[in-house]
Amino acid sequence: MTGRLNSTQPYFLGLFRIVVGLLFACHGAASLFGVLGGAMGTHGSTIPAGTWPGWYAAVIQLAGGAFVLLGLGTRPAALIASGSMAYAYFDVHQKAALWPIENGGEASAMFCWAFLLLVFTGSGAFALDGLLTRRWAQRPTAEQTSVVTA
C-alpha cells in the first residue's frame, strides 16, 4: 500500500499546489478588485492602492498565488508567500491573542505552513516548471546544430 501511495505523491502534491495557489490568488483578487466578496468580505470594496501593508499583501497574494497555481517559479513564489503570511500572522493577528483560533489568524497560519511545505517539496506534477525544464533539456546545443565544413 505504501508503494502505491508513494507513486501517486507527485500528482497529489501538484493538486495541493494548484488548490493552495488558487485560493491564495482569489484572496488577493478579492482585496485588489473587489470580486468574490471584496476585501475581507466587505462585499465589493477594495484596499486603496499603495496602502501598507494591505495592498502590498494583496499583490503578493494575487501574483504569488498565480505563480504557485501555474507551477512557475514555485519555490521562490512560495517562499515569498509564506513570509508574507508569517508577517500577517505575527504583525496583525497575534497582537489580539496567542492562538490562531482566538485571533482570527487561522488562514494566515495555514497559508504560511502550506507555502513553506511547497518551498521544500517543489511543485509536484502538472507544473509549468517541469514542462519548461524538459523543453530546455531537449533543446539542441550549439555543437549539435552547427555544421562542420571542411
UniProtKB/TrEMBL annotation:
The domain of life is Bacteria
Q: Does the keyword Acetylation apply?
A: no
Membrane topology category:
Multi-pass membrane protein
* Regions crossing the membrane: 12-35, 55-72, 79-101, 107-128
Q: By its UniProt entry, which InterPro entries does this protein fall under?
A: DoxX (IPR032808), DoxX-like_oxidoreductase (IPR051907)
> What UniProt keywords apply to this chain's record, in alphabetical order?
Cell membrane, Membrane, Transmembrane, Transmembrane helix
Q: Where in the cell is it found?
A: Cell membrane
| Main subcellular location of this protein, as a coarse class | membrane
**Which parts form a coiled-coil structure per UniProt?**
none
Signal peptide region: none
Q: Which PANTHER family match?
A: BLL4328 PROTEIN, OXIDOREDUCTASE CATD-RELATED
Query: Which protein family is named in the record?
Result: Belongs to the DoxX family.
Q: Know the name of this protein?
A: DoxX family protein
